[in-house]
Amino acid sequence: MDPYGKKQDLFTSTLNAYSQIFFSDHIIFGIFIFIVTFFDFWSGLTGFISVLTVNLMARAWGYNPYYIQKGLYGYNPLLVGIALGMTYEPSLLLILLVIVSAILTLFIQIMMQGLLGKYYLPYLSLPFLISIWMILLAAEHFPSLNISHRGLYELNTVYSAGGIKLVKLYDFFSSIRLPNAIIAYFSSLSAVFFQFNVMAGIFVAAGLLIYSRIAFTLSLIGFYSAYFFYKMLGVDTSTLLYSYTGFNYILTAIAIGGYFVIPSFFSYVVAVFTIPLVAILSTSLFFIFQPLHLNIYSLPFNIAVLLFLYAIKNRTKKTTGLSEVYIQQYSPEKNLYSFSNYNERFNSRYPVNFKLPFMGFWEVSQGHNGEYTHQDEWRHAWDFIINGSDGKQFRKQGMFPEDYYCYNKAITAAADGIVETIIDGIDDNIIGQMNIKDNWGNTIIIRHQNNLFSKYSHLKKGSIKVRHGDTVKQGQVIAHCGNSGRSPYPHLHFQIQSTPYVGSKTTDYPFSYYLIRKDKTLNLKTFSRPSSGDQVSNIDSSPFISNAFNFIPGKFIVVTYRRENKTAAETWTIQTNSYNNSFIESDVYHARAYFYNDGNIHYFTHYEGSRKSMLYYFFIGCHKIQFGLYPDLIIEDFIALNAIIGKYLFLHDFIAPFKMLFKVKYISKIEFIDNEITPSKIRLRSGCHIYFLNKEIKSISIQIHIDEGGIKKLTIDESLAKREIEWVTE
To answer: In angstroms, rounded to a whole number, what is the distance separating the alpha carbons of residues 513 and 626?
Structure first.
């Protein structure tokens, strides 16, 4: 087993090398491209030998198994092998040259991975370019290598690839009178594999459509943007037919419009406006390389994409319309649906998750744009107090700070960080009086990121428990509430700011989630800002629930269930990958459910693999579980479309970058609890509801049974069919 939990599969890694030419790990697409390369048998063979050589060598030398499996080491040697097979006549010397060239390309890849990886940039097909240019220049001095003329006798090439049936198929496609613009598009797709064959281009286009509707659309946008740009400039568009430049526009549009960037209307527009740059690069580079008798191949695509990626990575402000892909899933659709779902659930605009800086329920006495002091540059702040059951914030007459319920209560760090500033030694005020000279009173400022700080003011003198430079964890007690500074009565002033100074202007930044109690009802707010009068609290976790979802790496879960009147079993293993992402993996289907647990809420974040696994239903049923004993609290969330909806998304994919017609809503709550103080049995109910144009079309209901030993059973109700999953933790 490799570190990623799957046995390294030579078959899969080989086909992935073919599909990676179009930024994919789609096996079916890989098969399409594999077949296309064998339209010229010898170039197909040399390409296959090249991939096989690199994959075997990379394994033997202990290179990253993930990169091997995904075909990331194989696609550049594949291109080199195909190019050499097309350029020279078949011979044993050619086979030897292909093997040596494959090894050279692998070494160049490893080097470029290190060089460009420092800037978080991909090496694309640069290793292919460097390798093929070096080999072609050197091969001019190898008299034993004979230049191939197979391209001049196209029918002979087709016959050698598939016999008379393929020739007839070729004649059929050739007899279809297509406009030159369409022929140019298909020819450009086949030119990726150094062929000028409309039938090969049709095969590639079909595979591209199966792999990704977004990538297919972008291939059309990229090519025809170039085609009409040529027309506008008066350039002969037939150059797209007999040169290798046409595919540069296709690959550039896919890369910029939907692979390295989340597909959106804005990414499509940027892809269109990048095409003229590729055209200029293609023309200028052609004349630079012409004296060397070298083809520019994919160099314009590489330069344009790397310039673009470097430019967007150096932005000081991220725009919502142009978002980079941080977790690459090798599919524009998967990247889009995951990003959209992540944004709905976690709001990527706010990288630090702030919680309320106290324990228990407090009330907002002054919120944003408050009527007293939260105005102008300091308007994005909160004042918090505690009210008693009688609605008052103090006992007795409230004459002394000690009479106030919040006075001397623990104040906690809202997020992990480093203590930047401390002010202490300021006395608490007499009730009704204020210290205007030391406006903020005793204060702590914590740095969470560059340009992101939290400030806690009016603290009790001598109660500060941290020092400058200390590292603090979220929820750690850092001080106690006081009445120092401009504070007529005890309260906590809290704000987020972009600079580390006392008196800095505030930043509009929400709390990641909190409970709000209003009219005896309880709701969970996410990425929201409490308003004046709101009674708010963090989730008070119950060990009874939190222990049930405490999935420790190395732990095994054995689940049994009934399928087709037979008892079946799966073993789930808790694992963590090299990126420190935790997941549960099924041994039968190799499905994975990635999760995150912050101590108050369990989230499933991503699912991959077969939906036949019972892990899939666990992923749905426990998509978001809060750990508090709140029977009246309903949790709402969303599940990524591609994790739930199957065939219906095929047509939806075409418009998904512009408009989402489907939505998958998740709801969960505590349905039964035997004792709210010391529970021994709890039953949660969750539901997954699929909507199309806001109309529900399907639902799945799941019950989660928990006892003192943890999760014991899931009861699933889907489309009138019921099933149960029982498991034992080891």
So the answer is: 11
> Which residues lie below 8 Å from residue 51, measured CB to CB, with a gap of 6+?
14, 17, 18, 74, 77, 78, 81, 102
* Residue 423 token pair: 């002010």
What sign for the dihedral angle of Cα 581, 584, 590, 592? negative
Cα angle 433-437-443, degrees, rounded to a multiple of 5: 90
| Partners of 633 in the β-ladder | none
pLDDT tens-digit series, residues 7-56 = 448 889 999 999 999 999 999 999 999 999 998 889 999 999 999 999 99
Under 8 Å between Cβ of 197 and 189: no
Let me know: does 606 contact 544? Beta carbons within 8 Å: no
475 Rama sector, left if φ>0, alpha if ψ -120 to 50, beta otherwise: left
Q: Give me the sheet containing 417-423, strands edge to edge.
A: 471-472, 417-423, 442-449, 452-459, 492-497, 381-385, 362-366, 535-537, 511-518, 521-528
Mean pLDDT over 628-640 rounds to 93
Return the residue matching tokens 């990886």.
Answer: 117
How many angstroms separate the CA atoms of 22 and 26, rounded? 10
What is the per-residue pLDDT across 72-115, written as a single tens digit (0 to 9) for each? 999 999 999 999 999 999 999 999 999 999 999 999 999 999 99
Place of tokens 């694992």: 575
Q: Rounded to the nearest 10 degrees, what angle do helices 246-254 and 265-289 cross at?
A: 150
Instruction: Specify which residues 699 forms β-bridges with.
Output: 689
CA gap 521, 527 in Å, rounded: 19
pTM for this structure?
Answer: 0.85
pLDDT tens digits for range 19-31: 999 999 999 999 9
pLDDT tens by residue, 120-152: 999 999 999 999 999 999 988 888 888 876 654
Q: What is the pLDDT of residues 434-475, one digit of tens each?
A: 898 999 999 999 999 989 999 999 999 999 999 999 999 999
CA 171 to chain centre: 45
